[in-house]
Design goal:
Layout: H1 3-11, H2 15-26, H3 30-39, H4 42-47, H5 62-68, E1 79-81, H6 88-96, E2 100-108, E3 115-122, E4 127-131, H7 132-135, H8 138-149, E5 154-157, H9 161-171, E6 178-180, H10 181-192, H11 204-211, H12 220-231, H13 243-254, H14 256-267, H15 269-283
Parallel strand pairs: 1-4, 2-5, 5-6
Antiparallel strand pairs: 2-3, 3-4
Helix pairs in contact: 1-6, 6-8, 10-14, 12-13
Length: 294
Amino acid sequence: MEDSEFLAYVELLDEVEQGSVREKASSVSLNAERTRKEKMKVEDLNACEPASPAPEAPTTSLLNDLKYSPSEEEEVTYTVINQFQQKFGAAILHIKKQNVLSVAAEGANVCRHGKLCWLQVATNCRVYLFDIFLLGSRAFNNGLQMILEDKRILKVIHDCRWLSDCLSHQYGILLNNVFDTQVADVLQFSMETGGYLPNCITTLQESLIKHLKVAPKYLSFLEKRQKLIQENPEVWFIRPVSPSLLKILALEATYLLPLRLALLDEMMSDLTTLVDGYLNTYREGSADRLGGTE
């Protein structure tokens, strides 16, 4: 299907479907709604408009800002995709053109028995937050499944096991071509220690501190995420979503791309050392052994 045809197809989804989506949103449990009223600040409620698009990310790379100046995390930009009209088709077209992207997910016990609420996708210059709770399985049928299963697009994920299980058993999606930063950390540890394995696998926060040298104070969003989940396991079902929660979703995905590059550099260090020695084999040796042109 041509890009223009695909975009037109997505835009033609009728208003009946959108009405069912809105009805689904209104059926969030009373417990979650009551918790929202107790926990969210008045200013967050006033500032959050569920249908208003977040500002489009700039065309310059978001990753360099986060890698070299972690304080820029406050400036992360994202696009919320919570309906099929307007933004969904354009987002899929942009993502399809990428060779590498990062993927994160949030929900209630994300696995075959749980509920997927958010799928975050970050490219080198954009961050998209797909509201799976509102969009439903049609989000996958209309492009996300094709991307997640595409063997040409590398997906960077931290601990892919739970999302892979969820996608396979609930949506019939076989996640393909994944660079798992948690697995890469284990491999790097094994290479450094001569074949030993770590006592435990690393969290995303631990990996960012270890490999990207990010100061813990800039990763407070991960601690806040954990606290919110402990206080209310249904936090990802709440609509409208506060800006602070949306920023957590965006940052989870954005940091994965520079983390992959850092891990690759570390894993390639032994090869780089060998190549450096190879470079000097002749140029720093005796000229007699090289012969001449005559």
